[in-house]
Amino acid sequence: ACLVPLKDTTKSADLYKAVKETLARFSLTIRNLSGIVTDGAPAMVGKKEGLTTLMEEDAKQISNVCFMKYHCIIHQENMCARILKMENVMNVVIKTINFIRSRGLNHRQFQEFLTTLESTYGDILYFTAVRWLSRGKMLKRFYDLRDEIKSFMELKGKPVP
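^ that's the sequence the OP posted. Answer follows.
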């Protein structure tokens, strides 16, 4: 694999040319490819002139019928999270985490509580909307610590719904 900087425009023709030149540099052809993964940008997936369309046309010319087009799995995960409308879950989780993390005393007590219980984790993670990959890590950590969080919140008189 390699990264190829595009100096000027990033139109589908520019991307296509860069991919073809890179394949040639490594002595590869479209026959060597089983598919292409993109981020869904118009220059990548345009129906008439997108990179995936141009690559697929090349594949068809040499009878590479197995050539697949994929949308990046990380982007798919983010789109699914937006479409699922998980606000009811996210609001409870974020409110609970903010109660623990945003008050210094609560946060220190929670960390000590986890240490006392010999928990696998020493802390809970914040969720940052800007860094959308953090959502999955935060939810997993919250789930893994659900019993500890429930106990701590009950001690504080703030039961988790």
